[in-house]
Amino acid sequence: MRIALLADIHGNLEALEACLAHAAAQGAERLVFLGDLVGYGADPGAVVARVRALDAVTLRGNHDEAALHGPVGFSTLAAEAMRWTQGRLDAAAKQYLANLPYTHEEEDRLYTHADGSDPAEWRYVTDAREARRSLEATAARLTFCGHTHLPALFGLTATEKLLHHRPMDDLMLPLLQPRRWLGVIGAVGQPRDGNPAACYGLLDTTRAECGWMRVPYDIEGAARKIRAAGLPEALAARLFEGR
Amino acid sequence: MPRQAGEFTLGEVVHKGGMAVLRAATHPAHDIPILVKLPLLAEGEDPAAIVSFEMEQMILPRLDGPHVPRCLGVGHEPLPWIAMERIQGETLLPLLDRLPLPIAEVAEVGALIAEALCALHRQGVVHLDVKPGNLMQVGGRIVLLDFGLSHHAHLPDLMAEEFRLPYGSAPYMAPEQVMGIRGDPASDLFALGALLYALTTGRNPFGDPQHMAQMKRRLWWDPPPPRALRPDCPPWLQEIILRNLEPEPQRRHPTAAQLAFDLRHPEQVSQTARAEKLKRDPWTARVRRRFHPDHQPRLKRDAIAMAQSGAPIIMVAVDLGGMTPELAAAMHGMVTQIMATLPGARVACVNVLLQNLLRPDLTLDEDGRNKHLQRLLELRHWSAPLKLPEARLTHHVLEATSPGAALLEYAQQNRVDHIILAARAPSLGRRVLGSVAAEVARDAPCSVTVVRLRPT
Question: Which pLDDT score is estimated for B134?
C-alpha cells in the first residue's frame, strides 16, 4: 500500500492541493498528516477544513498547539504570523486542533511531528545524534516526522552505526528490512532546502520504500494571499526561494 | 542450513566465499537457473560483512542490463538473502594461471571489462571491488559480480561508516579507496589498470600488501613500467595502463567508455611520456610525492569533476561526398560549441567508405587500401579546423554497405554519447531528413544532433 506523508503545510492551500493531486496520481491510498497545518501561510482556516474533511490520521504540530495557546519560543516572524493565524480560526477549527494527538503508531511505523523520543518537546531531528536519540527511544522500525522542513533519511546499520542520507528528489529509496529508519519529510507549505517545490513523502509499505516527492505549485498565488493578508513580506518572498 | 529463502527453494552449495555462500535454488515462477546468496555469519566474523551484504541487497535490485546478474528478489528471513539469475560462465581467475597474456588478449579482455564498468557507472554505481574473481566472462561480454562494497550515488551508503579498515582487494584497490573515499568511478579504472598491468607483466603492480602502511605506498610509489618487464608491450598499452594507475583520479581516463575506446583503437591512443618510460621515476620524485605537501595527490574530487556527462564520446559522422563549405562550417561550429562546454569530451570523426556488395574483397587489393588511406587523410583534413588536440580527436573510416547501419553499429560498440551529423542539403529538394540522418536519429542509442543549413 502507498501512503502519502504530508508535513508542515503551514496554511499553504495551493501547495496542499498540488501535493494531494500528485499523491492521488501516484496511487496513494491513504494520507497521514504529520502536523503544522497552520502558521506562516494565509489559508489556515481553509487548510484545517480541507484536512478535516479528508478523515485521515492527523498529528499535532507545534504551530497547531500555538494556535490554541499562543506562540511560545517562536521567532518574531513566526510569532507575528501565529497571532494573525489565531484570529482566523473559528471555534470548530480550534476544537479540531485541540484534539490532535502527538503521535500515531500502526504496524511497524511511528508517526510524529518532531523528535519521537519526547514528541511534546518539539525538538528538531537534523543530525545523526538527534536521529539516534529518537530511534533508540522507541521500538518502531520506521519513524516519520517533519518539523525541520529539510528532507533527510537516517538509518541504523547492522553495526549500529547511524547514517545520514540526503534523499534525491522523486526517487524511491529502500528502507531495508530489518533495519530501522527515520525519515524526516520536507515541508509541503514552506520548503527550506533551497528547492521551492512542495515536498511530501510517499511510503510504499509493500516494497518497503519511501520517496521524497517534489511538486510544483502556484507559489505566486500563495504569496499573493500572504501579502494581501498583511503578513510579513519575508513569508511571501521565502516561498520563491525555498528558504 | 535453511531450506527456503522467501519463495525460493534452496539446493546444493555452489560456492562458498569468505563472506557469503551461494546456493542453487528454484522458484515456481522462474524457469531459469537461480542462485541464492546468503551471508556467512560465523562467530567472530567481521560484523561489517552483514552491512556489506545489506548494501548489495539495496543495490542489486536497482541494476539492469547484460553486465549484471538479474536480481529476482531480496529478503531477510530466516537470514538475509538475495536471489538472482545464475550466470553460466567462468570468472577470469583462470587467466591468472597463464600470465603473461598475449597483448591482443589483454586489450580484448580489458575492453570487455571497461564496457561492463561503463554500463555500471551509467547507472550511478561504482563497483569498488573489480578483480578477476568478480568478473565473469559470458560469451562476448563481462558480467560483474558481488556489489557488497559498491557505492550507489543515490542510495544511503551503509559502508561509508565502516571504513576503520578500507574494504576492497589489496592488489587492485585505488589509493583514494585506501584512504576511505568511496564513490569515484575512477577507482574502478585504477583497479582495471592494476589488472591490465598484471595480465601484461605477470605481476601485480603493488604486490598483495596485507597492512595499511604497505597499502598506502601506492599513493607515491610507482611500479616499474610494463615495458621494463615485458619488452614487447606496445607503448600505447603502457600509456593506457600507467594512465589508470595514476594516484590522482583526475589524471586517469575520464570515463570507462573512453578507456574501452582506447583499448579498441590502439592506433588512435594519444601517447605521452608515459608510453616511452622504461624505468621507474627517480627516487627524488617518489620522495617528493610522499613528503612534499605540494606534490601529494589530490584524491577527492567533487561530484561535478567526476560527472559522467562531462566526458562524453561525441561521434561526428562526416559525409565527405555531400559536404559543402557552408555545411562544413555549420558542423564545425556545432562541434566547437559542444566541446567548449565539456573539457573531458572527445570527438571521433567517422566516415563510411561504401563497399561494393558484389566485390567484398575490394579492401584486400591495393586499390582498396589506397581508398581507405585517402579517406582517412580527407577526414583529417576536414577536422583540422576544429583545432582539437590529438588526445581529444580520433578518425575512423568504416567500410560497409549501408552507411546508416555502420554508423549505428559504431555508436553502439563504442558507447557513443552523442552523434552529430548533417541532413542532406535542402538544395537537393529534400524537406525531410536525409535517409541516413533519419535512420540514425530514429535508431541511435544516444542523443543525435542533425545539422542543417537554412534554405537561402
Answer: 96
Same domain, B42 and B165: no
CA distance A11 to A43: 5
Q: Which domain holds residue A81?
A: 2-241
pLDDT tens per residue across span B68-86: 999 999 999 888 999 999 9
What domain range is B46 assigned to? 4-85
Q: Which runs of consecutive H residues, i.e. helices, occur in chain A?
A: 13-25, 44-54, 62-69, 76-88, 91-98, 128-137, 219-228, 233-241
Enter the C-alpha cell of residue A205: 509499505
Does B411 share its domain with B433? yes
End residue of a domain, out of B252, B279, B307:
B307
C-alpha A6/C-alpha A185 separation (Å) is 8
| Cα A230 to Cα A41, A45, A85, A226, B334, distances in angstroms | 11, 16, 12, 7, 52
Task: State the CATH number of the domain containing residue B52.
Answer: 3.30.200.20
Residues of A in Cβ contact (< 8 Å) with B51: 157-159, 161
B224 and B354 part of one domain: no
Q: Is the peptide bond before B28 cis (omega within 30 degrees of 0)?
A: no
Window A:103-162, CB contacts with B under 8 Å? 153, 155, 157-159, 161-162
Angle between helix A76-88 and A62-69 (nearest 10):
60
pLDDT at B434 over 70: no
Interface contact B156-A161, CB threshold 8 A: no
Is B292 in the same domain as B263? yes
d(CA A163, CA B182): 15
> Quick one: CA dihedral B64, B69, B72, B76, positive or negative?
negative
What's the pLDDT score for residue B429? 47
| Catalytic annotation present for B129 | yes
Of B284, B307, B330, which residue is a domain's last?
A: B307
Spell out which residues of chain A touch residue B156, defining contact as CB-CB under 8 Å.
153, 155, 163, 165, 173
ipTM of the complex: 0.89
Domain count, chain B: 3
CATH number of the structural domain spanning residue B298: 1.10.510.10
Inspect the interface and report whether the beta carbons of A173 and B157 lie closer than 8 Å.
no
CATH of the domain at A115: 3.60.21.10
Q: What is the DSSP letter of A12?
A: -
